Amino acid sequence: MSRSIEGEAIAQLFTRARTPSAWSSTPIEMATLKQLYELAKLGPTSANCQPMRLAFVTTSAAKEQLLLALSRGNVKKAASAPAIAIVAQDRNYLDRLPELYPVGYDARSWFNTSPDAVAGHGERNTMLQAAYLIMAARALGIDCGPMSGFDRDAINKIFFPDQSWDAKLLIGLGFAAEPVREPRKPRLRVEDACRFI
């Protein structure tokens, strides 16, 4: 029995989905943003460590502060997005591991062999969760525009001054003002990107 999802679902998630450069003014409801997280959190992470934390920037005042920390090329498209998710990594994510991975012993020892190991595991799993967030948004009919051009220290100072959160990625969320008409940029061929060993 096939467990593959239908072609229309694949199109919405992958083949038809595009990154908009201009957004409509249609807002995203708070309930939808909460639903977005509820879906994204279900994706697997190492020992269920779940290091991703999110700040959804939706107000004009917060967005004005955010725009100050963006690279020039991202300001225009971020300014019109109904919401921008700041994807952050909780530097202290292992503190929650006994709660999230209750196996009768302390699984933190798997990760905390060194500060670099803690940071590396956290960053890999945060970015993995960011990908789940994008796919969850697409599943809900929300367009996404990921951005990595920003001043991380400035974002942390503005939005997380008293928290252990560290910004890793921004994702514009909303609805495209118009369909993306330019051809999709090239992707690597399977022969160039994959080895079958």
From TrEMBL:
SUPFAM superfamilies: FMN-dependent nitroreductase-like
Boundaries of every Nitroreductase domain copy: 21-174
InterPro entries per UniProt: Nitroreductase (IPR029479), Nitroreductase-like (IPR000415), Nitroreductase_HadB/RutE (IPR050461)
Molecular function GO terms recorded: oxidoreductase activity
Domain of life: Bacteria
Gene3D superfamilies: NADH Oxidase
The protein, known as: Malonic semialdehyde reductase
